[in-house]
């Protein structure tokens, strides 16, 4: 095929550039559907186009265009806590249900303009996130580009599904529950944990620097009369976040991860543990909702000097906290931006539903952060949170060779607080998944091989007798309206087809 048949040109009139932190006018972006990459960008002198549009042109003039958004903290296997609390999801939902839900979550995230997910732990589903990532990468189901943590690391008793029925665990009297984390204690054990994660296919190592691990001191209600602990202390006193690892252990996690060139994410609810994680040299600190020990300023100073990225997950704070605590979280994030802390946008999506990912950006703007800074947090800094070049890809800004991930909104987020909810167009890896506000090619469509579709009665008989040849990637039929690629055989992922015998 001639090379130009694989080139699509996306014409824009208003495009956000995260590197210049500015909106640019009249830019056209050429992308290659064979490589999934950006070929080049060129500035036009006017909003007009010199040639009539062909089916190789995509006209996004009048829309507001961004590189695909990165959600830097997601859980593909979780749905909203308000539907069903996450530990109950882990305990009671079948693996099949959770995977089917994840398939829907991935579609929802992509339709919301999120072309990359940094997915921080399966929550008691082992390494299934790595398998799910591979399914997306193999073209079996639509979804964001996934960078996964597999199982998070925690110390003994640190992060698990709690139950009082733990007596004689492994024997006849206790409940058998899936583990919620890879539990490691001591410097060499944590290094072993990192090595296991790397071996299991993780893209990022996640560890719990602290957690509310004293819940069984005053355990939650059990069903039926007499199931409530009478007169427990105040909720915050009852079960505050407590540090899980020593400084030595956190240091060792980072040292080991560096040997494998893999980024590290630390869950830290408290500023004091976030400070320890930043000192250890983690790539990102997740959450930071409380400042019990007055370490906020020291934490931000350490983050600035180390280049640590903070993923404050404000959307989850909004879900879970009272107004006073939530307001403090927002104010801290505004301060962090002002002090030059690198901040990435990640909602802990899954704790609230996938598809609503943009709430994190909306809250940052509500907190007083300039729209342009928020957009950088949701694009270029997201790429850094995924490990930057160590991720194996470039995305989140415009450059030749970067992944061709393009999102268009109907309105301008500088003028419309709900702009991020109005996603008109989504392209990932040069493939269109949403156009004119409608999903494209979302439903797997099996197609008969050409000779069978056009067969005479005689050929039909032959087809019954002989195994038919079916394209491998039937799930990603390119015959939908959004992708004007001329022939299936021109598309990269269609090339490695194999023979399937029909039963
Ligand atoms: Zn999380």
Proportion of helical residues: 25-40%
Work out the count of structural domains.
Answer: 3
How many strands, which pairing sense, and closed or not: the largest β-sheet? 5 strands, antiparallel
Listed once per kind, the bound small molecules are: zinc ion
| CATH third-level topology of the largest domain | TIM Barrel
Number of strands: 23
Average per-residue pLDDT, rounded, comes to 89
Number of helices, counting only DSSP H or I runs of 4 residues or more: 15
State the shape: globular
CATH architecture heading of the largest domain: Alpha-Beta Barrel
Give the uncertain stretches in residue-range form: 459-481, 485-503
| Rg over alpha carbons | 24 Å
| Termini Cα gap | 35 Å
Assembly level: single chain
Structural class call reads alpha/beta
- Strand content range: 15-25%
Quick one: CATH superfamily of the largest domain? Metal-dependent hydrolases
Task: Report the top-level CATH class of the largest domain.
Answer: Alpha Beta
Folded structure, characterized:
It is built from 15 helices and 23 strands. It has helices at 86-92, 95-111, 128-137, 187-199, 235-238, 247-259, 271-280, 296-306, 314-320, 323-339, 359-366, 371-377, 380-385, 450-453, 457-465, and strands at 7-12, 14-17, 22-25, 27-32, 37-43, 57-60, 64-67, 69-74, 114-119, 145-148, 153-154, 182-183, 205-208, 210-211, 242-243, 264-270, 284-290, 309-311, 342-343, 406-409, 423-428, 431-435, 438-439. Strands 7-20-21-22-23 form a 5-stranded antiparallel β-sheet, with no helix packed on it. The protein is globular, with a radius of gyration of 24 Å. Helix 4 packs parallel to helix 6 (247-259), helix 6 (247-259) packs across helix 7 (271-280) and helix 7 packs parallel to helix 8. The chain is α/β, with parallel strands linked by helices and 503 residues long. Zinc ion is lined by residues 73, 75, 120, 348.
């Amino acid at each position: 095929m001639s090379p130009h048949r694989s080139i699509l040109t996306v014409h824009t009139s208003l495009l956000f550039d995260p590197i210049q932190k500015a909106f640019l006018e009249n830019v056209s972006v050429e992308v290659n559907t064979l490589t999934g990459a950006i070929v080049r960008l060129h500035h036009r002198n006017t909003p007009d186009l010199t040639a009539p549009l062909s089916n190789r042109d995509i006209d996004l003039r009048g829309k507001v265009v961004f590189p695909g958004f990165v959600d830097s903290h997601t859980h593909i296997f979780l749905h909203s806590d308000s539907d069903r609390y996450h530990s109950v999801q882990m305990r009671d939902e079948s693996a099949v249900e959770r995977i089917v839900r994840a398939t829907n979550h991935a579609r929802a995230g992509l339709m919301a303009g999120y072309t990359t997910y940094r997915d921080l732990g399966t929550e008691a589903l082992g390494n299934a996130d790595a398998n799910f990532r591979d399914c997306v990468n193999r073209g079996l189901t639509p979804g964001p580009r996934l960078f996964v943590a597999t199982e998070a690391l925690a110390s003994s008793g640190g992060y698990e599904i709690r139950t009082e029925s733990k007596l004689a665990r492994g024997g006849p009297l206790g409940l058998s529950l899936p583990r919620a984390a890879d539990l490691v204690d001591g410097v060499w054990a944590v290094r072993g944990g990192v090595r296991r994660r790397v071996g299991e296919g993780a893209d990022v190592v996640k560890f719990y620097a602290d957690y509310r691990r004293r819940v069984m001191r005053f355990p939650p209600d059990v069903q039926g009369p007499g199931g409530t602990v009478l007169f427990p202390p105040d909720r915050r006193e009852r079960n505050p976040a407590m540090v899980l690892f020593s400084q030595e252990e956190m240091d060792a996690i980072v040292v080991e991860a560096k040997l494998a060139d893999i980024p590290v994410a630390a869950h830290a609810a408290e500023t004091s543990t976030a400070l320890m994680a930043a000192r250890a040299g983690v790539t990102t600190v997740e959450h930071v909702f409380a400042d019990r020990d007055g370490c906020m300023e020291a934490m931000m100073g350490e983050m600035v000097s180390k280049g640590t990225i903070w993923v404050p997950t404000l959307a989850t704070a909004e879900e879970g906290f009272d107004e006073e605590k939530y307001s403090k979280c927002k104010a801290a994030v505004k301060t962090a931006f002002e002090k030059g802390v690198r901040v990435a946008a990640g909602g802990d999506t899954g704790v609230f539903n996938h598809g609503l990912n943009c709430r994190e950006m909306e809250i940052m703007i509500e907190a007083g952060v300039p729209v342009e800074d928020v957009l950088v947090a949701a694009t270029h800094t997201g790429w850094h949170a995924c490990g930057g070049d160590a991720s194996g890809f470039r995305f989140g800004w415009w450059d030749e060779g970067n992944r061709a991930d393009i999102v268009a909104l109907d309105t301008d987020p500088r003028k419309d607080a709900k702009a991020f909810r109005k996603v008109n167009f989504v392209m990932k890896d040069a493939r269109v998944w949403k156009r004119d506000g409608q999903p494209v090619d979302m439903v797997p469509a099996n197609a008969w091989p050409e000779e069978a579709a056009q067969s005479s009665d005689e050929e039909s008989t032959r087809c019954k007798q002989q195994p038919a040849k079916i394209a491998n990637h039937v799930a990603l039929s390119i015959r939908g309206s959004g992708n004007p690629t001329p022939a299936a055989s021109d598309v990269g992922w269609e090339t490695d087809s194999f023979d399937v015998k029909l039963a």
